[in-house]
Amino acid sequence: MIDFIIITGAAFFAGVLNAIAGGGSFLTFPALVFVGVPPIAANATSAVAVFPGYLSGAAGFMEELRIFDRGALLALLGLSVVGGVLGAILLLITPSAVFSFIVPWLLLFATLLFAFDENIRSWTQSKKGVNPIGKTTTILTVTTYGGYFNGGLGIVLLALFSGLGYRDINLMNGLKNALSFILSGASVATFLLAGIVYLREATIMMVAATIGGYIGAMLAKRLPRTTIRTIVIVVGLGMTMVFWTRS
Hints:
By secondary structure, the chain is mainly α. It has helices at 2-20, 25-34, 39-59, 62-66, 70-92, 96-115, 117-125, 132-148, 153-163, 169-194, 199-220, 225-246.
C-alpha cells in the first residue's frame, strides 16, 4: 500500500509538472527506484507512466497548436519518432552500472540547460539565421536524449524551443507536450517489445499522470513564468543531489 501511494502520488504530480514546464520524470523515476525497480527498468517504466499525460497536457494547449505552422509541426513530430526509437535502442544496450553512474549528470545537464535558456535564446537570436542542417541535428539529438532518458525531457525541449527563438510560453508548452507524446510513444513501443517495463506499476502511474497532465495544463496558463521556472529548477537540482548521493 505504501508503494502504491508513493508511485501514484509521484505520477500525479509528474503529470502536473510535465504540463506546466517539464521535469515530471524527476519524480516518477526516483519513486520507482525507491520501491525497488532496477534503474534501467525504472527509466523505461517511468517513460510508459508519463506517456499518456503528455497527450492530456497537449490537449490543454490546442488553441496554440492549431495556429502553429502545420508543416513545421509535422517535421518536428517526424524527427521525434526517429529520435525516440534511437534513444530507446541506446538505453537497451547501455550497461546498468554505466547508466546508474550517468543519471545525476543527465539530470544536472537538463536542469542547467533550462536555467540558462534565456542566455541560449539571446545567443541564437544574435546569429543571422538558423542553419537548417544544424536545426535538424539539434532536434534529433534532443529527441534521442528523450528516448534514452525521459527525465528532464520537458526541460530540454523548452530550452530547445527557447534557443530556436520561440517566445510564447503557452505555445512552447503545447509543442513540448506534443513532441514528448510522439517520441515517448516510439520509445515506449521499443521498451515494451524488449520486455523491460514493469506493467503493473506503469498502468497505475499512467492513470494518475493523465489526470495530473490535464490539471497541470490549466494551471500553466495561470501561473507566472518565474514561478514555473523556479519549480522546475528546484526539482531538477533536488533530484540531481539525491542521485549523486545515492551513486
